[in-house]
Design a protein that fits this description.
Elements (H helix, E strand, L loop, with lengths): L2 E7 L2 E6 L4 E4 L14 H23 L3 E13 L7 E13 L3 H15 L1 H6 L4 E10 L1
Parallel strand pairs: 5-6
Antiparallel strand pairs: 1-2, 2-3, 4-5
């Protein structure tokens, strides 16, 4: 896996993944930025949510669950002083579907958290991560 980061101006950078996708990172005005992109730690949080959602949806679809929507809401707490590491992360899944099995949803989230989501597994070595969910019936 590769990535490339290119300085644009002030504290704005363009990040490009090895697969050719790009994202803009920028800081807030108080740090010399223009607030035109994600902060790097926000990208870590978004990456965690994306990885977990991908796994859970994949597992549920393989389990023939009728999922029509998946949202993951993430909240993180950070240390007060530099390097301001994450101390706690909470993921809240909101799964919408037709007669979703509570057992299958629990299993999918557990498998993602403990076996498949490399971001979650990597972060859990240094950060306390909690996951819960709700099911909305259509």
């Amino acid at each position: 896996m590769q990535a490339r980061i290119k300085w644009i101006e002030d504290v704005m950078y363009a990040g490009q993944s090895g697969s050719g996708h790009s994202v803009i990172m920028d800081g807030p005005p108080e740090y010399g930025g223009n607030n035109m992109g994600l902060r790097p730690m926000e990208m870590v949080l978004v990456g965690l949510g994306g990885c977990a959602a991908f796994d859970v949806m994949h597992i549920l679809k393989k389990s023939r669950q009728s999922v029509v929507d998946c949202e993951v809401q993430l909240n993180a707490k950070r240390e007060q002083h530099a390097p301001k590491l994450f101390t706690h992360i909470h993921l809240h899944f909101i799964l919408t579907g037709n007669h979703l099995s509570l057992k299958q949803v629990q299993r999918a989230i557990q498998l993602s958290s403990e076996k498949y989501c490399s971001v979650s597994i990597m972060l859990s070595k240094a950060v306390e991560i909690h996951v819960d969910f709700e099911i909305k019936e259509i």
